[in-house]
Amino acid sequence: MKANFLKLTTYLVIFTLVLMAIQYGVLFSFEVELFYAVWQIYLFHFSLAFITCSLLLYFSFLDKSKAGFVFIACSLLKMLATVVFLLPMMLRLKTNMFANIMMVLLPYLVYLIFETIYVNKLLNSK
Known about the structure:
Mean pLDDT: 89
Order of helices and strands: HHHH
Largest sheet: none
Structural class: mainly alpha
Helix content: over 70%
Distance between the termini: 14 Å
Number of strands: 0
Shape: elongated
Low-confidence stretches: none
Radius of gyration: 16 Å
């Protein structure tokens, strides 16, 4: 289990760095002023994805039949946390609201795809 945890952490860090570089490139091209810094957005998404995948790994190690329920529960909590994360921005920001929301929600969806692939891999492994 320790090797799987190390592999998960490595993949997640590399995945985050690649996505962050892409977002910095997009921001450089379009010159959008963000409410949150890019590193804050990715720290938020990384920590939620890390917690979710770690819980998935732990519960699949204990009992694979519970991993699907853990994934659903974590996904619901992630949605709630994302709304809470976006709330200060939506209450204060008057301009560029759409661009700011997309800069948070697009990584959210990409991390969700990563987690879905990860849970699929865990559930289908022997």
